[in-house]
Design a protein that fits this description.
By secondary structure, the chain is of the alpha/beta class. The protein has six helices and four strands. It is globular, with a radius of gyration of 17 Å. The chain starts with 6 loop residues before the first helix and ends with a strand.
């Protein structure tokens, strides 16, 4: 409680933190998903939700990191630092996936690789980050229409797997 103007968000979090019902657990295979939406005010609850057996997606705004102002870049990196340090403190052996949202706004591989190098240099000591090769993060397209690569030969949109976040950095 007590924050100004955040009551509905807190109620939403309280609802999300309830244990899964037997039906929900059966339908999801026992999978639970919590989205902190990049908000540090929920940090006091974080330790209740994490374990070394958890897998965590830390989502950041790749477009803001690659193309934003110096202030936006610093804020994005500071938020990533915060969430990765929180995970290290509460679940040092958990799996962590860095997800670069809005990759559709950073289409050039060279730009993505430069951001990958920046993140790798900054976070390489964290051995629990699972990264694809050749990038240090998983790029995710957030455009409202699927890219051409996800279209069938007839031009119809093919099924696309969407990613939901467990911990969000920078309001990706």
């Amino acid at each position: 409680g007590g924050g100004s103007g955040g009551g509905s968000r807190e109620s939403k979090l309280a609802t999300e933190l309830r244990p899964l019902s037997a039906a929900a657990a059966a339908a999801t295979g026992g999978f639970e998903l919590l989205d902190f939406d990049g908000e540090s005010r929920f940090s006091s609850l974080l330790h209740l939700c994490l374990s070394d057996k958890s897998a965590n997606l830390v989502v950041f705004n790749l477009a803001r990191l690659a193309l934003g102002s110096e202030t936006e870049r610093k804020t994005e990196l500071a938020t990533l630092d915060y969430w990765l340090q929180s995970l290290e403190n509460h679940a040092p052996n958990c799996a962590v996936f860095l997800v670069g949202a809005h990759a559709d706004k950073v289409p050039a591989f060279e730009q993505r690789k430069a951001m990958s190098n920046l993140l790798s240099a900054r976070f390489e000591r964290r051995r629990n980050i699972i990264s694809p090769k050749p990038l240090f993060f998983h790029p995710v397209d957030c455009s409202p229409t699927p890219p051409a690569a996800t279209r069938t030969a007839s031009g119809a949109a093919a099924p696309v797997t969407t990613t939901t976040t467990a911990a969000t950095a920078g309001g990706g």
